[in-house]
Specification:
235 residues, alpha/beta, Nucleotidyltransferase, domain 5, 3 domains, 46% helix
C-alpha cells in the first residue's frame, strides 16, 4: 500500500473500527499525520463542470459523442470515467412533473406484430395513456402526447430510451414547442427507466398475457379497460 490516498483511507478505517488515536493509526501504517489531514485537490472539477455544460447543450448526445467534444477542447480523459460523472435526477414533487415512456411488443392471434406505447407519471405511477398500433413512429408518439397536452396533461420532463421514436426530429420539435425537457437513459441501461419497466411487467402479466387478441380494435378496448382499472381500482 504505497499510494497516499489508500493510506489515508486505511488510517480512517482503523480509527473508526478500533477507536485508535490519529497518532497511533498513522504509526501503524507509517503515514505522516499531515498527509492524513491533507484534503487532496479535486483534479476533475473542471472536467465535471464542462461535461455538465455539454450535456445540457447537447441533451441527445451520449457518452461517446460527449467524449469526442471533450477531446476537441483538449480535455483528454479516459472515456470509461464519464459514467461516474452523471447527475442524479431529483425525484418528482408533484403530478405531471416527470413522465416516463417506453414500448411493449406483442402480436395478434393472426401473428401480426403490434406495439403498445406506455406512459406513466413518476409521481404516483398513474398511467395517462396506453396506445396500441401496428407501428408507432415518432410522429405517432407526438400525436399521443399532443392529445394529452390538449386535455391539460403535459409533463415538465419526459424520460425514455434512445430508440428512434424518441430521438427523432418529430419528438424533439414537439418538446421544444411544448416546453418539455427530454431525458434519455444510457444505451443498454433499461433500469435507469426502472419505473416504466416495472409498469410494463405488470401490464404484460396482467393484461397482454391474459388475452388472445383478434384485432387492434379489440386490443385498444381491452388495454383501455385495464388502464382504467389500474389507475382507479388496482392496489
Amino acid at each position: 500500500m504505497t499510494a497516499p490516498a489508500l493510506r489515508r483511507q486505511a488510517a480512517h478505517q482503523i480509527i473508526e473500527a478500533y477507536g485508535y488515536s490519529e497518532r497511533r493509526a498513522c504509526q501503524l501504517i507509517e503515514l505522516n499525520r499531515r498527509t492524513l489531514r491533507r484534503i487532496p485537490p479535486d483534479r476533475d472539477e473542471d472536467l465535471r463542470k464542462r461535461l455538465r455544460e455539454l450535456a445540457e447543450e447537447r441533451r441527445r448526445f451520449g457518452c461517446p459523442r460527449l467524449y469526442l467534444l471533450l477531446r476537441r477542447e483538449g480535455l483528454v480523459v479516459n472515456h470509461k470515467r464519464q459514467s461516474h460523472l452523471r447527475v442524479v435526477q431529483p425525484a418528482p414533487t408533484g403530478p405531471n412533473e416527470q413522465w416516463a415512456m417506453d414500448f411493449v411488443s406483442d402480436s395478434l392471434d393472426s401473428g401480426r406484430r403490434m406495439k403498445v406505447l406506455t406512459i406513466i407519471d413518476l409521481w404516483d405511477r398513474r398511467c395517462p395513456r396506453l396506445e396500441a398500433d401496428s407501428s408507432i413512429p415518432g410522429e405517432g408518439v407526438v400525436r399521443v402526447l399532443e392529445q394529452l397536452r390538449q386535455r391539460g396533461e403535459c409533463p415538465k420532463h419526459l424520460r425514455s430510451d434512445n430508440g428512434p421514436e424518441s430521438t427523432g426530429r418529430a419528438l424533439d420539435q414537439w418538446a421544444t414547442s411544448a416546453g418539455v425537457r427530454l431525458e434519455f437513459i444510457r444505451p443498454g441501461r433499461p433500469m435507469e427507466n426502472g419505473h416504466v419497466e416495472s409498469f410494463n411487467g405488470k401490464f404484460r402479466e396482467e393484461c397482454l398475457n391474459a388475452h388472445a387478441f383478434r384485432s387492434l380494435a379489440e386490443v385498444r378496448d381491452i388495454i383501455e379497460a385495464w388502464r382504467q382499472d389500474y389507475n382507479t381500482a388496482r392496489p
